[in-house]
Design brief:
This protein has 207 residues and is of the alpha/beta class. It has 9 helices and 5 strands, in the order βαβαααβαβααβαα. It has one domain: 3-Layer(aba) Sandwich (Rossmann fold), CATH 3.40.50.300. The N and C termini lie close together (10 Å).
Length: 207
């Protein structure tokens, strides 16, 4: 089974991905982290890198090709990325949602401590974080519509959607783990049949 995790910033994607990887003893691939490092190497914040990506597809396509290859050559892993559900169509697709103000507060608290987010410049208040996150969502929609004709924030793309606004990390993990165990016990990688997944992701190899 391949588990892809997408969703809103500040929803707890990385936390649950790490917990799942540890629980199943599977590798975890963090696509957002890869893009943050790529931005850093160019002296850019993630926000600046996303803006660049609206003109230059290489900022996304390099990591997206990497994801496609993973889906075609490996099994039993966790992958966290905005486009992972699309690029690995047979994955079990999980989406975490969260109220935008709660997300901004969570991100702001993380930024005050030791972190490697490389998020944006001048994030000194929760209001500034909220504004930055809204800009990021807008950029994501522009880029993925332009390059793939998809909306990564459309919850209809996913097999399991969870709002984490009022949940702590242990509650989030428990709900997702229960869903995954159910799929494993019933022998299902995804509730969508593979022919449907292939039609929805034209040009990609089904797993």
């Amino acid at each position: 089974m391949i588990i892809s995790i997408s969703g809103a910033s500040g929803s707890g994607k990385s936390t649950v991905a790490e917990k799942l990887a540890k629980k199943f003893n599977w590798p975890r691939y963090y696509i957002g982290g890869m893009r943050r490092e790529m931005a850093k190497k160019q002296g850019l914040t993630l926000a600046e890198y996303n803006k660049l990506g609206e003109r230059n597809p290489a900022t996304d396509l390099e990591v997206d090709e990497y994801q496609k290859k993973l889906g075609q050559t490996k099994d039993n892993f966790i992958i966290e990325g905005r486009t992972s559900w699309y690029l690995i169509p047979c994955s079990l697709k999980i989406y975490l949602d969260v109220d935008e103000k709660v997300a901004a507060r969570r991100i702001f608290e993380e930024l005050k401590g030791k972190h490697s987010r490389n998020e944006d410049k001048n994030l000194k208040t929760i209001t500034q974080v909220l504004k930055s996150q809204r800009t990021r969502i807008k950029s994501d929609k522009i880029r993925y519509k332009k390059y793939y004709q998809i909306n990564v924030y459309n919850k209809k793309n996913y097999d399991f959607v969870l709002d984490t606004t009022k949940l702590n990390e242990n509650q989030v993990f428990a709900k997702i783990y229960d869903f995954i165990k159910f799929r494993l016990n019933t022998g299902q990688n995804s509730p969508r049949n593979r022919s449907t997944a292939k039609r929805q992701t034209k040009g990609l190899l089904d797993c």
